[in-house]
Amino acid sequence: EGIDNILGGGVIDSFWWSMKHILDPGSISENYGAPMGVILFALFNSVMGLIITGALIGFIVSAIQSAMENAKMGSGFVRESGHYLVLGWNRKGTSILELLSKFGNIARVVVLTEMDISELRTDIRRGPRGLRNLKLLPMQGSIWVNSELRRVAAANASHIILLAETNSGTSADVTTIKTLTLLNTPTYQKNSGRRVKIVAEIVNKENTSIAAIASKHQHPIVSSSDFV
Fold this sequence. Notes:
Layout: H1 10-23, H2 36-73, E1 84-87, H3 93-103, E2 109-113, H4 117-126, E3 136-140, H5 146-151, E4 159-162, H6 172-183, H7 186-189, E5 197-202, H8 208-214, E6 221-223
Parallel strand pairs: 1-2, 1-4, 2-3, 4-5, 5-6
Helix pairs in contact: 1-2
Organism: marine metagenome
InterPro entries: CASTOR/POLLUX/SYM8-like (IPR044849)
Transmembrane segments: 38-64
C-alpha cells in the first residue's frame, strides 16, 4: 500500500513504503503473497526499524540516567539568577540555612563544597525541620576555581556566603581569600550594574586584614569566633 501512482510512484512510493515498514514493523503482514524479494526487503526494513527504535529508547534512557546521576553527584550547571550561594561547608552550615529558611521567599539556595555530597545531604537531613522548606541544590566542586564559580552562576547570585571548608584544614583561610579575590573581579561584580552581596568566614583573626584586602574592603569579613 504505497502512494497512488498519480502522485508519482517510483522513488516517492518506495520511500513511503520503506518508512512505513521502519516505523511500523507490523506492516510486514501487508506483504502477504508478494514476491520473495519484496518480502525480504520488507523484513530488512522492519528489522532496521526495531534496531533504530531500540537505539533511540536506549539513548533517551541513558540521557535521563546521566542527568539524574549528575544531579545526584552535584555536577550539573545552575541556570538561575537571584539565588543565594553558599561556598564551602562546615558545622555552621545548617545554622545558616536555618536562618535563611526563616526569611521566606528565597528562590533557591545553592551549596558548592569540596566535601562528599552524600555527607552534605546527611548534614541537612539531620538539621532542623525548617530546612525542608528551602529549595536546596547541593553541588560538589572547588570553590576557588573560576570554572566552578561559573558553573554555579556566582555572577548571577544575589547573596554569597563564604564558609571555611572543613576539608581544607589549616589552609581554609587561603581557600577563602583566593575565592574572595575571584569574586571581586569584574566578571562577578558587573552584572546589571550591581554588586553581589558577599560575607566571608575567616578561621584565624590574623588573616582578617588579608581577606579584607582581597575583598577590596567592600564586604564584611567575620572570624569564626564571631560567627553564627
